[in-house]
Design a protein that fits this description.
single chain; mainly beta; four-stranded antiparallel beta sheet; about 0% helix
């Protein structure tokens, strides 16, 4: 893991010509595959240097937090961050995010293999357990999950609960504290429970991502089964965060799931029917600089407006939005939108698709490089990336 120090990300792996779809564009496509001797890899985030992180299986069959740089002398060389003392073969145990500083966050099994804790990883510290709400006296809340971070690596968002599959979870954020320890300065992480006032009966809370202004997005499920999207705005003088519900599109689409927020306060995610049988990508934009009020716009899929299904997954500070949607033939394919386009025309991100293939983009950095997945009947799931700037 120490070899990751000083990696300079500068070279590409593979070039494909122009994009197919509604709007032709030159796009470079990178097929990064999966961890050596594994069978699949699912990316969750990408930073400004082009390092993709996620999770997948390794030779032993265990699921691990893994990553790969797209560019530079180590391009295409996968790395394994290890564990917190335990191992699991359960899928989706270690979703992750990476800051532009290189800090990686996620969650892994601790000793005994039964309990999962959130971690922060840096080349200097390695993987560090950042704790649970049990540390603050919340009895039974001995699980935690780190879902996302901001670009500067100063906020880690997630949840702490009574079990990995339990609905009894509370939204949390970790903030860094530098202390003098054994003759050197050391960064520790403090856990804070986020505000849930005004949402009585809601459960399955999670905080998902944050921006450098201190805004945090998240979700919860109401007593009648509707998923709500929320944003926590920072209070003055660092006195915590105040929760606010994001607006929904209509009574027919009461559920909302924000998935990413940029440094302009713009939020991307999904709107859906209560049972999630129909869902579409959505953009929430602040209607005032304070971020205390938002408007919501539904983005079209490759099949058209309110046609098929689609997900909005990532947004960068330039207004590039990525995710996936179905085309007119029902194929689910990686899709890009732009907040600069008043009509939000969807653009296909090309992959080596076949009639049985699919693709999906999950996050995009400020250099216009998106990370995602590709698969077909012969490829379970490979990590891929696109450069369109």
């Amino acid at each position: 893991m120490r070899r990751l120090l000083g990696i300079v990300f500068s070279a590409a792996l593979l070039l494909i010509g122009s994009a197919r779809g509604i709007r032709a564009q030159e796009v470079r496509f990178y097929n990064l595959g999966h961890y050596p001797h594994g069978t699949w890899a699912e990316p969750r985030d990408i930073n400004v240097s082009g390092v993709v992180v996620g999770f997948g299986d390794i030779r032993s069959g265990y699921i691990r937090p893994i990553g790969v740089p797209i560019f530079g002398p180590h391009a295409g060389q996968w790395f394994d961050l290890g564990t917190l003392g335990g191992d699991m073969t359960v899928n989706e145990v270690m979703c992750m995010a990476i800051a532009d500083t290189g800090m990686i966050v996620g969650h892994a099994a601790i000793h005994g293999n039964e309990i999962v804790h959130a971690f922060a990883w840096t080349p200097q510290s390695g993987m560090v357990d950042i704790g649970t709400l049990a540390d603050l006296g919340h009895s039974g809340y001995n699980f935690s999950l780190a879902y996302g971070t901001n670009k500067s690596g100063t906020l880690i968002a997630g949840w702490s609960g009574t079990g990995f599959e339990s609905a009894d979870t509370l939204p949390v954020v970790w903030t860094p504290k530098v202390v003098w320890n054994w003759g050197q300065w050391k960064t520790t992480w403090q856990i804070h429970k986020l505000d849930t006032n005004g949402f009585k009966g809601a459960s399955a809370w999670t905080a998902m991502f944050a921006n450098d202004s201190g805004q945090i997005i998240g979700t919860a499920t109401t007593a009648d089964g509707v998923q709500i999207g929320v944003v926590w705005n920072p209070l003055p003088n660092g006195e915590g965060w105040k929760i606010m519900k994001l607006p929904v599109f209509s009574n027919d689409y009461p559920s909302a799931e924000p998935t990413d927020i940029n440094n302009n306060g713009e939020i991307v995610g999904d709107i859906a029917t209560q049972d999630w049988s129909s869902y579409f990508p959505a953009l929430w934009k602040p209607v005032e600089p304070s971020g205390k009020a938002y408007s919501v716009t539904v983005l079209p899929t490759l099949a058209g407006y309110l046609q098929g299904v689609g997900d909005g997954e990532g947004i960068n500070d330039l207004g590039d939005i990525v995710g996936g949607s179905t085309d007119a033939n029902g194929n689910y394919l990686a899709t890009r939108w732009s907040t600069k386009d008043p009509h939000f025309v969807p653009m296909l991100l090309p992959a080596p698709t076949s009639p049985d293939g699919w693709s999906w983009a999950t996050k995009v950095n400020n250099k216009g490089v998106a990370a995602g997945s590709y698969g077909n009947d012969y490829v379970a799931e490979d990590t891929v990336a696109w450069k369109f700037r």
